[in-house]
Amino acid sequence: xxxxxxxxxxxxxxxxxxxxxxxxxxxxxxxxxxxxxxxxxxxxxxxxxxxxxxxxxxxxxxxxxxxxxxxxxxxxxxxxxxxxxxxxxxxxxxxxxxxxxxxxxxxxxxxxxxxxxxxxxxxxxxxxxxxxxxxxxxxxxxxxxxxxxxxxxxxxxxxxxxxxxxxxxxxxxxxxxxxxxxxxxxxxxxxxxxxxxxxxxxxxxxxxxxxxxxxxxxxxxxxxxxxxxxxxxxxxxxxxxxxxxxxxxx
Length: 250
Known about the structure:
By secondary structure, the chain is α/β, with parallel strands linked by helices. Helices cover 42% and strands 16% of the residues. Strands 4-3-2-1-5-6-7 form a 7-stranded mixed beta sheet.
């Protein structure tokens, strides 16, 4: 089921400028038409973690109890980095503020959040990478564990129509604080992508996936062209072992 894409050990994806071609393995220079280009979001397309920064935004604007929320936000972030995150416990924590406010107010806050927190985290190299795949005719997909409320406007900023994210439950027009469906995390990303492929009559032939995190190894092992982006130490070691290419976007 899993495929391994191997390139020369010294082949590293890099940008000489924000718009210069990628240094790819031999024979993979041009044209990946009709293939999927799948991007993780946090610490991949953006230089930071949108879920964590949304929590910081809530704290800074006194929307949540600052001391307690910051302590828990930091604790869950550390567990994510360590690969020990209980995703359901984390979602119960992070979705709770959505249930405490109406969606109109939440959307107003998110507009400010985008301007203050997210736009400064989007670099020219990340935008150029997306545009390279768009120009090649690839189908662009963002896949992220962060919930859809936080991430949908970020996907729109990149001009990417297809977003696979953790979905907060909505009833009677309000968030409930619960998650609906499978959280889009670790093996859950594979499950959610497989559902998306079936629904959209697509496949993984020629597919690319860009990620920074060892938590995404299940999906990196599934695509034809796994690429690590500013990888964490665990992913860097695995990429070196499997001779996966790496790109530095930040």
